[in-house]
Structures are given as structure tokens and as C-alpha cells.
């Protein structure tokens, strides 16, 4: 039995209470000045002020961690990534800098399909090796749980290999990985005009194996103009739901197709991207409780307008923020960049951004009952920042402030 006791945190952010947090509730992060937290093994057992906990805790029984001058938060949850892939697309980034668009590169055979070719040529061992490096950089940014998608195989063998690589990493790396099947991520040339056949192939031949081996919890689809239509996405998502998958959607990214409304209709856990979500889509996400996951580093990298996060919160949505780390539209998993974009360009408060990266991120991966806040009974996933207040997060712009990361009660990173 091992007890660890954190004392004198200048600010301790709990994000406690009902989850997810919708609308105005997102600004309430349950901040405690001169905060303290007691953990035992992998769980939090008490949270309060240092004065309150000092009265309860026998310090001789504990390892004491002094957090004076520091901010203590729940570990961040990066709830949307594509971190397992082969090859890179730096050339495409440079073409876009000269004026090319993401969709025109995709239509010329580049984009996702070029990563598909590189990923098919990548072995399980190489996926695991590079995946480990990427998880290490996430950990340094204070991420303690990450969602990862397949979707760069499109064929059975490679989709399964991507998911198996994540399963292995989940066992070998301290971070927790939540996996998503994204077979319908792109349409290969041989399936152009026969998208339904491709979906049926995934549903009948690939997804039963994914289910049987317990390789993915969620199913996702890229619903977009010239990729998968609303009708195709609805067909696929309903079938996936019948098979027992929880649902996510790449929705309303480049074109306003009604992906947000579809997410509400099929009962998706989250709708992601949403740059072009309509007023009606925003209203329906708020009403149905679909988590609106915003990926501001993608909009930034593509030089697109940001999603209307301010309006979503004002309308009562539960907003999460994630990186979308992938080799094409967004090759970054920088949490400080997300904080800066959320606060400076999307007009969210620091408190709202913290909620979006913690408890609402946890809800987006259906883990809000175990992670995302610092409350008794929850997993001890904790981050220390080296400055005394949350307000340093956007102010020390795009700089990594993480000092210590604790996962399931153990220190896994110290700067
Ligand atoms: O979420 N939009 C679709 N999928 C990814 C991009 C994948 C890629 O370009 O390789 C995204 O942005
Ligand atoms: Fe994505």
C-alpha cells in the first residue's frame, strides 16, 4: 500500500462535479488555492485545502510531494488522434503554404491515400516503435490518456495491424490508449462511386474481427464532400452501433453537410472538427448531449476558419479540445498550442479550455467516470505546471509548462 500526499499547490484544479460540463458549467473548474491531494496506489482518496487535509493525513505514512509555486491539474485527455501511421507528408505542407488546398491534394491521389500506401508498408514492430516515441512526447505535454484511430490501412490486414500496435502500446506504455476503428477514412480509387460496397466490406469482413479481438471501442467515419456522404455515414454508423461500437464522426470539417445533426440523430458520443457546423447542428449537439470536439491545431495548420467554439458553449454544448495529431492536416500534438489557439482565437476562457482538455475530453472517450477530474475515487492521473496559476497557460504562449506527470499514482515524467 503506497500513499502519496501533494501539499501546498498554489492552485489545484479539480474539474469536479457532474460530467461532461455543458455551456456555462465549463467555466467552473473547482479551483482550490493552497490545494492538497492524497492518493493511495492508483486512486485519489482525498482533495481539499492543505489545511483541511493536514488535519486528516498522517504524513509519516506518506511520501509528501511539495507543490508550492505550482499549478496542479487533472492529466490531459487527447481525445482525437491518428498517431499510428507510416511515412510523412512534409511536401504537402509546403504545397499548401504555396496555395494548394487539402482537398485538391487529396483529389490528386495525395493526402490520406498516400499515407495509406506508406502505412501498408510499415511492420507492426515499426508501428510500435514510432508509436512509443509519439506517446512519450504526449506524456511530456501532460497527456495521460489518448484516443488513437486506425484508418491508414483501409484493408483488413493493415487496419488490424494499426489497432494491434495500439493494443500492444496500451500494455507496454504508461499512457492509457482508447482505440477507434476508422476504416472509412478515405475512398480508394477502386471504390469511387461504390462507397457502399466499401462500407459493407468493412462492416462484414473487418469489423467482426475488430470486435472479436476487442481491438476498438469506437467506430468513426470521415463524413465529407467527395468522401463519405451523410447517407453513407448514417448507414455505417447505425450498423456499427448494432455491432456494439460507440460512435464518433469526423463531421462538418470542410463542408457543412449536416454531420453534427447526424451525430445527434445516431447518438454519437462525439462529433469532431465542426468548422462548418450549422446553427441547427450546434443546437442539436447541445440538446442531445453529443460532445463537440474541436481540433484548433488542424484549422490553424490548414489556414481555415476556426470552429465556432464560443457560440457552441454559449448555446450549451459540451466542448472538448483535442490535437488531431496526424501526418497530413495536423502534424502536432502540442497542448500549449491548443491552449493558445483556444484562448486567443476561439475566445474561450482559460477555465473553459482546461475543462475541454480534461473532463470533457474524458467524456469524449467515455471515461468521465474514472479520469478527467481530481476527485476521491478517480484514477490518480495528475499534472504539475511549473508556474503558480492557470493564467500562465495562455500567457507563456505555446511553451510547455509541464513539470511532473503522475499516472495511476506513479510519477512517469519529471522535467
Ligand atoms: O482528422 N479529416 C480527416 N482525417 C484527418 C486527416 C488525416 C490526414 O490528412 O492524413 C483529420 O484531419
Ligand atoms: Fe481526425
List the keywords.
binds N-(iminomethyl)-L-glutamic acid, 415 residues, 8-stranded mixed β-sheet, single chain, 8-stranded parallel β-sheet, binds fe (iii) ion, 16 strands
Helix-strand layout with pairing:
Elements: E1 3-13, E2 31-40, E3 43-49, H1 50-54, E4 62-66, E5 71-74, E6 76-78, H2 90-97, H3 102-107, H4 112-120, H5 124-140, E7 143-149, H6 156-172, E8 176-181, H7 195-212, E9 218-219, H8 230-242, E10 246-251, H9 259-266, E11 270-273, H10 279-288, E12 291-294, H11 296-302, H12 309-314, E13 318-321, H13 335-345, H14 350-357, H15 359-364, E14 382-385, H16 392-395, E15 402-407, E16 410-414
Parallel strand pairs: 1-4, 1-5, 6-7, 7-8, 8-9, 9-10, 10-11, 11-12, 12-13
Antiparallel strand pairs: 1-2, 2-3, 5-14, 14-15, 15-16
Helix pairs in contact: 5-6, 6-7, 7-8, 9-10
The structure holds N-(iminomethyl)-L-glutamic acid and fe (iii) ion (FE).
Walk me through the structure:
By secondary structure, this protein is an alpha/beta fold. Helices cover 37% and strands 21% of the residues. The chain has 16 helices and 16 strands. The protein has helices spanning 50-54, 90-97, 102-107, 112-120, 124-140, 156-172, 195-212, 230-242, 259-266, 279-288, 296-302, 309-314, 335-345, 350-357, 359-364, 392-395; strands spanning 3-13, 31-40, 43-49, 62-66, 71-74, 76-78, 143-149, 176-181, 218-219, 246-251, 270-273, 291-294, 318-321, 382-385, 402-407, 410-414. Strands 1, 2, 3, 4, 5, 14, 15 and 16 form an eight-stranded mixed sheet that branches. An eight-stranded parallel sheet has the order 6-7-8-9-10-11-12-13. Helix 7 (195-212) runs parallel beside helix 8. The longest helix is centred in the middle third of the chain and has 18 residues, at 195-212. The model has no long low-confidence stretch (mean pLDDT 97). The structure holds N-(iminomethyl)-L-glutamic acid and fe (iii) ion. Fe (iii) ion binds at residues 80, 82, 250, 324, 326.
Amino acid at each position: 500500500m503506497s500513499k502519496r500526499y501533494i501539499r501546498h499547490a498554489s492552485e489545484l484544479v479539480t474539474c469536479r462535479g457532474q460530467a461532461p460540463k455543458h455551456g456555462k458549467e465549463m467555466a467552473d473548474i473547482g479551483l482550490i488555492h493552497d490545494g492538497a491531494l492524497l492518493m493511495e496506489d492508483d486512486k485519489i482518496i482525498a482533495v481539499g485545502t492543505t489545511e483541511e487535509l493536514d488535519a486528516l493525513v498522517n504524513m509519516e505514512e506518506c511520501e509528501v510531494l511539495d507543490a508550492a509555486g505550482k499549478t496542479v491539474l487533472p492529466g490531459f485527455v487527447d481525445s482525437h488522434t491518428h498517431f499510428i501511421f507510416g511515412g510523412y507528408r512534409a511536401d504537402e505542407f509546403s504545397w499548401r503554404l504555396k496555395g494548394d488546398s487539402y482537398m485538391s491534394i487529396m483529389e490528386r491521389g495525395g493526402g490520406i491515400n498516400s499515407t495509406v500506401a506508406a502505412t501498408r508498408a510499415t511492420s507492426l514492430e515499426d508501428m510500435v516503435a514510432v508509436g512509443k516515441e509519439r506517446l512519450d512526447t504526449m506524456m511530456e505535454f501532460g497527456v495521460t490518456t489518448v484516443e488513437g484511430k486506425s484508418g491508414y490501412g483501409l484493408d483488413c490486414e493493415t487496419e488490424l495491424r494499426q489497432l494491434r500496435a495500439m493494443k500492444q502500446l496500451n500494455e507496454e506504455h504508461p499512457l492509457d490508449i482508447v482505440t477507434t476503428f476508422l476504416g472509412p477514412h478515405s475512398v480508394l480509387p477502386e471504390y469511387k462511386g461504390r462507397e457502399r460496397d466499401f462500407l459493407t466490406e468493412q462492416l462484414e469482413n473487418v469489423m467482426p474481427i475488430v470486435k472479436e479481438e476487442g481491438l476498438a471501442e469506437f467506430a468513426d467515419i470521415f463524413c465529407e464532400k467527395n468522401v463519405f456522404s451523410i447517407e453513407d455515414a448514417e448507414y455505417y454508423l447505425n450498423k456499427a452501433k448494432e455491432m456494439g461500437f460507440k460512435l464518433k464522426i469526423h463531421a462538418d470539417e470542410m463542408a457543412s453537410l449536416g454531420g453534427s445533426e447526424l451525430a445527434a440523430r445516431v447518438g454519437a458520443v462525439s462529433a469532431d472538427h465542426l468548422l462548418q457546423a450549422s446553427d441547427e447542428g450546434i443546437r442539436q449537439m447541445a440538446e442531445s448531449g453529443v460532445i463537440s470536439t474541436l481540433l484548433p491545431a488542424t484549422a490553424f495548420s490548414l489556414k481555415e476558419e476556426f470552429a465556432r467554439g464560443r457560440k457552441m458553449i454559449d448555446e450549451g454544448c459540451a466542448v472538448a479540445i483535442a490535437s488531431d495529431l496526424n501526418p497530413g492536416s495536423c502534424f502536432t500534438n502540442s497542448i500549449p498550442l491548443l491552449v493558445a489557439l483556444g484562448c486567443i482565437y476561439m475566445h474561450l476562457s482559460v477555465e473553459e479550455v482546461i475543462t475541454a482538455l480534461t473532463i470533457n475530453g474524458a467524456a469524449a472517450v467515455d471515461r468521465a467516470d474514472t479520469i478527467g477530474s481530481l476527485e476521491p475515487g478517480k484514477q490518480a492521473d495528475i499534472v504539475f505546471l511549473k508556474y503558480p496559476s492557470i493564467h500562465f497557460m495562455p500567457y507563456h504562449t505555446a511553451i510547455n509548462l509541464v513539470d511532473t506527470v503522475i499516472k495511476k499514482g506513479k510519477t512517469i515524467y519529471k522535467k
